[in-house]
Each structure stands twice: as C-alpha cells, then as structure tokens.
Amino acid sequence: MTTPKPKKPMPRVLTVKKAWHLTPHMIRVTFSGPELEGFPEGREGANCKLMIPEPGETRDAFVDRLTNGPAPSRRTYTVRAYRPEAQELDIDFVDHGPNGPASAWAINAQPGSFLGFAGPGPVKVKDFYADWYLVAADPSALPVAAAALEAMPRDAKGIAIFEIPSDDDRYPINAPEGVEIHWMIHKDAHTPSEAQVDFIRTMDWPDGTVQTCIAGEAGVVKALRKFLLTEKQLPKKDAYIAGYWKIGLVEDEHQIEKRAEA
C-alpha cells in the first residue's frame, strides 16, 4: 500500500509594512506581522515562492484561491533579510515595469498590501572554507550574492562582479574588506552581455581553493559554468552557479526548460 504524500503546508499570507525603491531598478519590500511566527532564521539567500494577488483582489478572495484555486501567479524570489526580534522579512524585487506580475505588484505595494509566501528553501552557500571567493550576479541575483557576501568570514578574499542597468543602481553591501567589488553597466538586460564572462576569463586566477556564488541570466551562467567547471576544473562542490532567468522567456517557460535539461 502506497503511503500518501503529506500535504504541503498552506502558504503564509504576508502583509507589507513598507516598500520603497532602494535604487531606480530595485524595490525593497519589508513584510511584518504574526504570519511570520516560526519563520526559520539564517535563510538569507534562500529561494522562496511568491504568489501574487490580482490587482484589486481582496485578502479573503486571495486566501480562498490559495485553498481552492485557480492558483495565482507564482514567482521565485530570494530571502534578503529576516529580523526575528521584529518579525520583519525583506525581499528585493527588480523593477521591470508594470508588465510582469511580481514587478507590477511591487511597484504598487504599500502598507497593508499582501501576497502568498512558500518556503524558504535551503541557503545556496552554506559553508565558507575557501582561500578565495568569486561572486557574480545581475540584478535578479543581487540578493543571493549580497547575502553570501554578508555571511562570509570577515577575513575572506575575492572578487564580486555586479552587472546593473545604471550607476545609480549601486548600493552598499556589507562585504569583507578583502573582496573587491566591480560594478558593470549593462543598460538593456534583454540583450546578451559578455562583460562578466570576459572579466572572469581574463582575470588573474588565484591559488588555493576557490568557491563561487554565481547566478543570473541563463546564457551568461552557461558560459561561466563551462569555463569554471571544464576549463578551470573547479570542483562542483565548490561552485554555486545557477541560471535564474533567460532572455525571451517568462519564469514558467524557463523552469520547464531547466527541468528538460537537467
């Protein structure tokens, strides 16, 4: 007799405390309230799933949809920070304009706004043991990259490369002093960029153990994965390298493609 799979827990329905543009293309939303009771600590940088209400949808109607369907739009995001003493959770949204459901929701978020939350999963880089670290991200992956930098030992050394749409999209990150941060401007995220790949291919490669935290557009990530794992022969256990999105595809299409290639 087959044991039935346990039911997935109901998503939390989180309430916005405040939302603001951290930079011209990055919106930080802080959630707070009793719904965060029991939220696991130490998950900064972990994936979570957000369920987006329709414009004008009431909270009761949204909760009913979470239970009975039809399912709302789901998008994958990153836990940026959790402060258990205040029961506050931060999630950063790239401002893509009003076309994507999550971006449109974040642009219009204000105190009292709500959405569904499932997760978080495990953190992407759990242990820091390298002689040198390589971090690379575009705006979609800045939250996981920043969380990794903030969790590193304070004596860590390495390089972080962030590709952003404008100079005004730089923001402070509490990285170790020994990590050099390089900001690169790529104005149109929907055109291919080779800047990160070129930088990493031509930089001086350090001695010793190297760990990576690299994420972003799938084409860039594919090229970096080939270079680092095949040409530089970096052990897979030392490399977090993940495609978070792909030019020309919405998230659902990209997830289907990733599963097909796995």
From TrEMBL:
Domain FAD-binding FR-type: 9-127
InterPro entries from the UniProt entry: FAD-bd_FR_type (IPR017927), FNR_nucleotide-bd (IPR039261), Riboflavin_synthase-like_b-brl (IPR017938), SIP_FAD-bd (IPR013113), SIP_fam (IPR039374), SIP_rossman_dom (IPR007037)
PROSITE patterns: FAD_FR
Record-stated family: Belongs to the SIP oxidoreductase family.
PANTHER family per record: FERRIC REDUCTASE, NADPH-DEPENDENT, NADPH-DEPENDENT FERRIC-CHELATE REDUCTASE
Protein name (database record): Siderophore-interacting protein
Organism whose genome encodes this protein: Cognatishimia coralii
